[in-house]
Amino acid sequence: MVMILAALILAGGYAFYRSANIGQSHTLQSTKLAATLARAKEALIARAVTDANRPGSLPCPDLITNNAGFSNFPGDGQADMFTLTQCPSYVGWLPWVTIDLPESTDDTGTRLWYALSPSLRDDDSAYPINSDTVAALKIDGGGEIAAMIIAPGSALAGQARPSNNPADYLEGDNSNGDNNYVSGPASATFNDVVAIITRQELMAAVEKRVASEVKVCLEQHALAAANTLHSYPWPAPLLQPELPWQKWQLLRATSNYPAQCGSQCQFAGEHHTGSNSPKRSG
Length: 282
Known about the structure:
Blueprint: H1 2-20, H2 31-50, E1 91-93, E2 113-116, E3 137-139, E4 142-151, E5 180-181, E6 193-198, H3 199-223, E7 248-249, H4 262-268, E8 270-272, E9 278-280
């Protein structure tokens, strides 16, 4: 009876762990792998925080671009180049060169994979990123995932490596290129280990940088010689019908507005979701 009760307690504890830790595919089996995934996650967040022109953005995966002129090839650790305004693929190898990491592999020596929410791509023509930007990726049905790092493990039956086909490294829904991903215990048909970056944790880090720089921008505006009153600019109104639908803006433009503050103010700015439903973000 005692053994049965203990088993039930352990089972309940595991169920709680799984529900409370949707960000992991299963308990990490290797301290080294856990550290590798953590470094990759930290490097991606750092990349989003420090991006000069589009704070909060992340690089494309490395999978498709094959361009000798730009010395960019599949599997070289460099993020793919855009095809028009989109990443060629939103799942591929982790672009370890682009995020300033050494080559990142799992316990089996297989390079890490990476999935990105399209809304966070680093393309200047895309809608600006701010705290309310929707992250499209999901894992086990839970959403608001900005990016995922996946350790593919050893090849399973039916997988042929090396390859640039996600299905030769990832299993089940993780291999089909849509926004839905899954986790689970290792088995004969599944051995992906997934670490996630939620939208909330990504934006929390980016917001600190943006808030600090917006403060500097406002101070520069107030101290500018041409600003004889040394006043701060008026805030933008909640509804600006002269702007096109879905535009972001933080401050009403003035002749003394510091031009170098554009990307920070774009991130921190106002997100109009429709002409009758203004919403301030940031």
